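Thread title: Can someone regenerate the structure for this chain?

I was given the following input by a collaborator and told the matching structure tokens would be attached. They weren't. Posting the sequence so someone can regenerate them.
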Amino acid sequence: MSFGEIDIPLFAAVAAISLFGIINMYGISGWEGGFLIKQIIFVAAGLFLMFAFSFWNYRYLKNYSLPVLLFYIFCLFLLVLTFYSKSIRGVNSWLVLGGFTFEPAELAKLMMIILMAKYFSQRHVHINELKYVVVSGIYFLLPATIMIIQPDLGSAIIFAMIWMAMLFVAGINKKHLFLILIAGAVAFYVSWAVILHPYQKDRIISFINPHDDPYGRGYNLIQSRVAIGSGYLFGNGLGKGSQVAQGFLPEARNDFIFAATAEQFGFAGITFLMGLSGFILYRILNIGRMSGFNFGKLFSIGMAVFIFSHILVGAAVNIGLMPITGIPFPFISYGGSSMVSIMIGLGILQSIKRYG
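Best answer:
Regenerated them for you:
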């Protein structure tokens, strides 16, 4: 088996966008605080995992239920453990491991893709039967409910997007889809009325008019827009963004890295970032299209939605089109949870390409 049996354009595009992320992180953080060094480690580990998983035969997931079920239980266990770990910004979404933090919700998203690809590929001829939709819903609701209680509404929404997209591609009945949408609206209302605290509601609705409280709940979004606008066409240059350098833009390495990137590299840099992201999505879907098995087709759809939803939410939050959710931007946000989960998923995709 050779390196040439995988999708080389996909591998090259992922390596290129990850390298861009490292350069971008250098401009944001420099060498201080160890963030750049850790990001280099995350990227190197991620690329290694993608390469390693490309040699692992994905048919173990397609043909055997036990490893998939064990992975599901493991992810549930990690999600529950977050309630006994350190709270960060009022949210119990992370496991603190020494100097590192790990967010189980990111791994759970990959788990959901594998589980639904396995489940629907075996039952696609029966997808019009409500009982199979209900069972898939139970698989979805257990981890999603934990995310909402944490509360990590952003991850729960993306989790739901993955599930719904794979249901749709599997051929769900329109009547059943309508019932799910109604149930989702009810669940959102209950979450809003019962689970979320007032300060969390304020954070969600602040995007509507951030200038109502420019030094409080609207501050983050205002500074994000200023950073994006100051980048103009070609940006202020690497490490020369005033919003980041002077500390006006909060969470520049994470939640608002899209704005920090626009400030440094301008519209041209954002165009390059989005173009490369689009090419990666195209190669992912192409692998699914060429796959001879429903598992491969469904898995590629799930991975495409996983990455696309993070891009969509990450950009929309920074511009002010969506509430602030704390969702990492794929390949360039600081942290290893999203990076490792996405890279393992891409490695499985490369295995689908390799083994057919």
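The chain has a mean pLDDT of 89.
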